[in-house]
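User: structure tokens for this one?
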Amino acid sequence: MVAEEAGYGRGCHAETFTVPNSSMRRWIQEAERVVMIDGCFLRCHGRILNHLVDEGKVVHIDALKIHKKYGDCFAIDDVPEEERKAVARQVADKVLAVMSSD
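Assistant:
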């Protein structure tokens, strides 16, 4: 939802994290800011990203702290689709508000 807004894009995590010389990784590394929306209690993508991009450019958003639900869920199907969409909208709105205040 955030990536659909003007001025934002979405990177493929698999290519960014696993293909060292890809144009996707270069695009992410050269970005002015990188928004990391982490929705998992393991936080592994955030930790990986901090090793690929200057940490000062990473805006790490912990979605679990926004919606305060599902901290014990791992599979996407653990949350009904309509509820998942509503929570995603809540998180996206908060992310966009944080980014516009910078």
